[in-house]
TrEMBL record, chain A:
Name of the protein described by the UniProt record: DUF4325 domain-containing protein
Organism: Candidatus Falkowbacteria bacterium RIFOXYA2_FULL_47_9
Residues of the DUF4325 domain: 29-75
InterPro entries documented for this protein: DUF4325
Organism taxonomic ancestry: Bacteria, Candidatus Falkowiibacteriota
TrEMBL record, chain B:
InterPro entries xref list: DNA-bd_dom_put_sf (IPR009061), MerR-type_HTH_dom (IPR000551)
Domain of life per record: Bacteria
Listed name of the protein: HTH merR-type domain-containing protein
Every HTH merR-type domain range: 5-45
Species the sequence originates in: Candidatus Falkowbacteria bacterium RIFOXYC2_FULL_47_12
GO MF annotation terms: DNA binding
């Protein structure tokens, strides 16, 4: 399954909207089967921040672990956010 | 929203310059008026004049220090998070159009986003007087100001760290330790992220952050490794952030 983040917006910064995004996406995530890879695609995202990431990305990582693949992550705010989320949650996102 | 326009005489008064100066600025392209036809009267956009006439830091400072609480001037006021997100998105688009910020615009937007969102997240339902934040930017001067009249960092963090004694300690913890005032949420990376981005920003885009809550203040520069909190000569209840880039 591929999660195209730009479908949630291109400025992904608030905790509230990150939370709403995950809630809205739960029905779609129900169709994920065992061992399926979840690709999170950052293509088209202009700004990403830890508040949004904390509410959407970290729960996905906790649920799917190494089955999570992060794609098109060259944006500077995406990179900086990964770093702080990894440090503060003591996790390591799988390499793209 | 239609811009509010004023005639040249009023514009000159607002900027404290002569009418001739404004005509010169028009010819030089420094401040272009609005003209319905090439020869008709010059009109000026009030919002543009307000930006030119004042320093954003002074506007924000005046607002947080105001003893009788009032909403900030309309162009700078974000009463709720949704309005802030809209204005932040607009800032992002404008930053993206600046040639030397094609890559770094996202860092600036996310830093402003984290600071503004922090104000909303920590004060939702508990604003002591004016709800919402002041958010103003001037891309010519390369400045962004954010301020709130919320509870301030000390009060917010004391909920999870009751031993915090003063604004200085609270500000230090907010920028250096993993903690959140939104217990039981085990989160609170916002200001640590801000520090990380400001101090590690690409040298081509120098970012300076001045931040104050209560009487405690700090300034972060590119390359800083330590955080140094000082006691300011003025104090207020909420938070005030000023970014230069």
């Amino acid at each position: 399954m591929t999660v195209a983040l730009k479908k949630f917006g291109t400025t992904l910064t608030s905790r509230q909207s990150g939370k709403e995004a995950l809630l809205a996406y739960e029905p779609v995530l129900k169709s994920v089967v065992a061992d399926e890879t979840i690709i999170v695609d950052f293509e088209g995202v202009n700004t990403f921040s830890p508040s949004w990431g904390d509410e959407f990305l970290v729960p996905l990582y906790r649920r799917y672990g190494d089955r999570l693949v992060l794609q098109n992550t060259s944006n500077l705010s995406v990179q900086a956010t990964f770093k702080i989320l990894e440090e503060s949650n003591s996790i390591t996102f799988p390499a793209a | 929203m239609e811009p509010k326009l004023v005639k040249i005489r009023e514009a000159a008064r607002m900027l404290n310059v002569s009418i001739d100066t404004l005509r010169r600025w028009d010819k030089a392209g420094k401040l272009k008026p609005v003209r319905l036809t090439p020869t008709s009267n010059r009109y000026y956009d009030v919002n543009e004049l307000m930006l030119l006439s004042s320093n954003l830091l002074a506007i924000a400072k005046r607002w947080v220090l105001e003893s009788s609480p009032q909403e900030p001037d309309a162009p700078f006021y974000c009463p709720d998070s949704a309005i802030f997100q809209t204005k932040l998105h607009k800032l992002e688009q404008q930053l993206q159009a600046i040639p030397d910020l094609r890559e770094e615009f996202s860092l600036l937007t996310s830093v402003a986003g984290e600071i503004g969102n922090n104000s909303f997240d920590h004060n939702l339902g508990s604003w002591p007087d004016v709800r919402g934040i002041l958010f103003a930017y001037d891309l010519k001067k390369r400045q962004i100001a954010l301020a709130d009249r919320g509870q301030g960092i000390l009060k917010t963090l004391q909920r999870v760290r009751p031993a915090l004694a003063d604004d200085e300690q609270a500000l230090m913890v907010a920028f250096t330790e993993r903690v959140t005032g939104r217990a039981p949420e085990g989160r609170g990376n916002g200001l640590k992220y801000v520090r990380e981005v400001v101090t590690n920003a690409n040298k081509a885009m120098k970012m300076i952050l001045s931040f104050q809550t209560g009487r405690a203040a700090l300034t972060l520069n590119n390359g800083d490794t330590a955080v140094r909190v000082i006691t300011s000569d003025f104090s207020f209840r909420g938070c005030l952030a000023f970014i230069e880039f």
